[in-house]
Amino acid sequence: MHSILILFAHPRFEKSRVNRALLAGVERLPGVTLRDLYEHYPDFNVDVEREKELLSSHQVIVWHHPLYMYSCPALLKQWLDLVLEYGWAHGRGVYSLQDRIVFNALTSGGTRETYSRAGHNRFTVREFLAPFAQTARLCRMRYLPPFVVQGTHLLGEEQLAVHAALYRTLLELLGRGEVDAETIGRFEFLNDWLNQVFGEP
């Protein structure tokens, strides 16, 4: 079994029905640790050593956040800058997180069509996530495609339940070690792989 650490960062979590639904389906899964960064660090004073301990005791890391101005909320960026430090996560021949699986789970108000070369935002979600992919590469982690829920304002309750079930299924598969990183790496989103395996909702 692989243990999973969800590093959740949303400064307005109470107003996000989509993220509440996603997390409600996974927070009690065996082997899953859900860590709400804004709850733990409202003053942005990240306990670096505690975060390192948590990372060291989990095999799968999830950066779960909304897409804010084409990036992540500020506290998650603070976490990345402080915790994945030189000489521990990378550099000096030390790679404490080597071979850990990591990916982004994110939500966006814009649809998939708006996040495209021809769309309003001009770039794809994968392109906006390039700094995360490179960070994972620097730390010699195995970076997977993101799990993405888009057009959040347009989702009905039935559609939302489907996304929540897919997220739960994904974490269950990762926890059991039943995910081949090379195979799913060919997909743009983890959702695309899940839909191929289990059928379109």
Structure description:
This protein has nine helices and six strands; from the N terminus they run E-H-E-H-H-E-H-E-H-H-E-E-H-H-H. Strands 1, 2, 3, 4, 5 and 6 form a six-stranded parallel sheet that branches. It has one domain: Flavodoxin domain (Rossmann fold), CATH 3.40.50.360. It starts with a strand and ends with a helix. With 201 residues, the protein is an alpha/beta fold.
Please give the structural blueprint:
Layout: E1 4-8, H1 17-24, E2 32-36, H2 37-40, H3 48-56, E3 60-66, H4 74-83, E4 101-108, H5 125-128, H6 130-138, E5 142-143, E6 147-150, H7 157-175, H8 181-184, H9 190-198
Parallel strand pairs: 1-2, 1-3, 3-4, 4-5, 4-6
* Structure class: alpha/beta
Order of helices and strands: EHEHHEHEHHEEHHH
Q: Sum up the overall morphology in one term.
A: globular
Compute the number of helices.
Answer: 9
Assign the CATH architecture. 3-Layer(aba) Sandwich
Residue share in β-strands: 15-25%
Low-confidence stretches at least 5 residues in length (pLDDT < 50)? none
Helix content: 25-40%
Indicate the CATH class: Alpha Beta
**What is the count of structural domains?**
1
